[in-house]
Amino acid sequence: MKKIFLCLLSLCALFTLKANAQTLSSPNGQLQVLFSVDDGIPTYQLSYKGKTVIKPSKMGLELFDSPDLIHNFSIIDTQTSSFDETWTPVWGEESKIRNHYNEMAVTLQQENTQRKMIVRFRLFDDGLGFRYEFPEQSELTYFVIKEERTQFAMTGDHTAFWIPGDYDTQEYDYTTSHLSEIRSLMQKAITPNASQTPFSPTGVQTALMMKTADGLYINLHEAALVDYSCMHLDLDDKNFVFESHLTPDAQGRKGYLQTPCVSPWRTIIVSDKATDILLSRITLNLNEPCKLEDTSWIKPVKYVGVWWEMITGKSTWAYCDLPSVKLDLTDYTKVKPNGKHGANNDNVRRYIDFAAENGFDQVLVEGWNVGWEDWFGKSKDYVFDFVTPYPDFDLKALNDYAHSKGVRLMMHHETSSSTRNYERHMEEAYALMNTYGYNAVKSGYVGNILPRGEHHYGQWINNHYLYAVQKAAEHHIMVNAHEAVRPTGLCRTYPNLIGNESARGTEYQAFGGSKPNHTTILPFTRLIGGPMDYTPGIFEMDIAKINPENDSHANVTLANQLGLYVTMYSPLQMAADLPENYERFADAFQFIKDVAIDWDETRVLEAEPGQYITYARKAKGENEWFVGNTNGYDARTSNIVFDFLPKNTTYEATIYSDAKDANYKTNPQAYQIKKMKVSSKSKLSLYCAPGGGYAISIKPL
User: Fold this and answer.
1) Which residues in the chain show pLDDT less than 50?
2) The last residue of a domain, from among 285, 317, 338
3) Is the domain of 512 the same as that of 642?
4) 624 is catalytic
5) Model pLDDT, residue 325
6) CA–CA separation, 57 vs 42, rounded Å?
7) Residues 337 and 244 in one domain
8) N or C: which terminal CB in the chain sees fewer CB atoms within 10 Å?
9) What is the distance between the terminal CA atoms of the chain, rounded to a whole angstrom?
10) Residue 415 domain flag
């Protein structure tokens, strides 16, 4: 009798699950999401080609001073629909993007409070996006998030490519490990500039890339991060369940919302091919269409800059060596210059000449404005005014000189993370740019955020970053924000957000070096959300030859640096090294001059996270293709086929590759250049050195 009773209970439970379950399939039928309310808790799971990707995972939000939005729910309505469009990005990796998904919106009502919450799913052929929506209702108006409790239950101890769940920096080298090893490796991974607020010993940042033992690739991230805190992931490393962990504010709260409102999308990209992860456009497609009526002023930019010489320590941002300078009191004409200030008239003219001679669009100049003597680490509110130049930087004359050469200067606004100070000066600073013909700004947020206690990725500061982009658009200014929150596809909505840093960039090659496989991981992680101003193109790897007091070594080969202009997508590409180093290797520099920065079509020819990536891209509006490869620790032979080329057409390929004795550590400048005729039937094998790579320019004969 007891067995019969237990069997009946099991059947009842199964019937209840099926009665509450809602299923949604992707357009091609290979992905399926199942949503249910189990004992009042919203739960979802995801499968791919019949294989479980996400096991049953709970959903909801925990609130301050209010019942949670996790328990006691029931389904009161379900709406399904399909959507299929093709849209044209202002700039991008292709000229057209298809946005094709099936949608399911499930309306839930909480029995004890009568509050309503909608969970909206969009299932694409390459992954899933879902978010929480809170309609206008009398039962729920204002609420404060204590924590979002969205789970991502993994099926096993996957290999992960991760960085720590820091609230204030993403500038980490990636660690590759099994999920079960994250806790033991976390302390080794944390850098000296980590957040002052402790984070979980198993917390990681998104985009998180994983690979299962049976060869499935999974990527977790978020899209359309607006008026909300950035999501990290905490791992239950015994059960391999990730749970969302939002960036706190100074009071430990995670978000202040008012209905109607929505959360960002939580994204899961999945495929049995690594190349498909790189080609996914889910993050962009989950963002709103462009909100700017006129985008004609937004143009991709290839630039050089007065920057690397400061990064390496050859020059300084500061004009003098005073320990403390007050902008409203000091007369810089009465102080002694330090003799190392990089942004001086003669040096800037040298860069302008170099840019004009080699076809570059702009010249970035850092350290042009007063205040750099005590800008960092002093927790100053009023730190820069963004309009007053140093005595040796003639703002008008240099801009006139640049324009006479067909070149623009690129503005630099380092805020020192004093956000109130930046906002108080923003209108005047952007107006100054309009006066002198600047159309792009590199902004920076180095240091601890002011107001004190806030973090780089919290709701309040995320709103500031977007405000800066919106205000810049009013002035027809493109924004390249460094140290800001990692991108989540907002460049679709605001395409004047032409680039971000938001990861460990090339500058770290002068700060002790990065791992040789770093750029084989970034396209699977950081670039999932949008383009990065990685600042490639370093030709002199021995930094001591630039500054004898800096013994850093760039852990790359010269050919690798060329390949990055194709593999590290950005409509904003810098030739970061000093002009004299490009003049030493003029034959290799030719590729940087030739390579496009806007594309009609993109192919991924081969890829394996942490090991190698090879892209082929067709230049926008041109019958020219460029191929780039970045390689990891191990030497290998890259075998590619040129079947991406149009049939019955012959091209000339100029190949820039590692020499046989090249090595990122011992012989990084060993490269070779050769030319050959290619067609759609051609095949090519190229040696890739440790930390190496290659680049190919393909032009029709």
Assistant:
1) 1-19
2) 285
3) yes
4) no
5) 55
6) 8
7) no
8) N
9) 85
10) yes
Q: Which listed residue (501, 507, 540, 624) is catalytic?
A: 507
Token pair, residue 700, equals 């029709």
Give the three-class secondary structure for 296: coil
Assigned domain for 4 exists: no
Q: pLDDT digit string (tens) for 156-182?
A: 999 999 999 999 999 999 999 999 999
User: What is the CATH classification number for the domain harbouring 172?
Assistant: 2.70.98.10
CA distance 369 to 116: 52
The closest of 435, 383, 391, 390 to 409, measured between CA atoms, is 435
Whole-angstrom Cα distance, residue 276 to residue 124?
A: 13
Q: What is the pLDDT of residue 509?
A: 98
DSSP category for residue 527: G
Asked if residue 174 and residue 69 are part of one domain, the reply reads yes
pTM over 0.85: yes
Q: Rounded CA gap, 450 and 429, in Å?
A: 19
SS3 state of residue 151: strand
pLDDT in tens, 177-196: 999 999 999 999 998 778 87
CATH number, position 426: 3.20.20.70
Residues 220/232, Cβ–Cβ less than 8 Å: no
How many Cα atoms sit within 13 Å of 70 on the Cβ side? 17
- Residue 281 is assigned to a structural domain of this protein: yes
d(CA 682, CA 689): 23
- Residues 339, 428: one domain? yes
Rounded to whole angstroms, how far apart are CA atoms 317 and 16? 67
In a domain, 633, yes or no: yes
